[in-house]
Amino acid sequence: MNITDVRVRKIAKEGKMKAVVSVTIDNEFVVHDIKVIEGEKGLFIAMPSRKATDGEYRDIAHPINTKTRDKLQAIVLDAFEKAADELVTE
Predict the structure, then answer these.
(1) How far apart, in whole angstroms, are the C-alpha atoms of residue 29 and residue 63?
(2) CA-to-CA distance for 50 and 75, rounded, in angstroms?
(3) Of the candidates 13, 3, 56, 65, which has an alpha carbon nearest to the alpha carbon of residue 34?
(4) Which residues pair with residue 80 across a beta bridge?
(5) 31 class by beta-carbon count within 10 Å (0-12 exposed, 13-18 middle, 19+ buried)
(6) What does the UniProt record say this protein does (predicted)?
(7) Residue 75: which residues within 8 A CB-CB, separation 6 or more?
(8) Domains annotated on the chain, with CATH
(9) What is the pLDDT of residues 1-33, one digit of tens each?
(10) What is the rounded CA–CA span in Å between residue 18 and residue 10?
(11) pTM listed for this prediction
(12) Residue spans of alpha helices (H) in 20-65
């Protein structure tokens, strides 16, 4: 799996959600609405989810294993940091 594009679409000034990101995989598949969230231990990503009839949120798309999640998170957070840096210098 190669992440071929990362787009940071929204950066919030306040609140725990810092950005909404789209990633393109192998120039063939896009996952929208990955959230960058600031938690107690730092930034992390939350995959797109939908509220089920029982009130719980379920991921719509997600990595199958930890290695893939870690790789995706590192790429997304790197793109987020670059986008945040660009806003500061403007």
Answers:
(1) 14
(2) 24
(3) 3
(4) none
(5) middle
(6) Could be involved in septation.
(7) 3, 6, 23
(8) 3-82 (3.30.1120.40)
(9) 899 999 998 776 788 999 999 999 999 999 999
(10) 8
(11) 0.87
(12) none
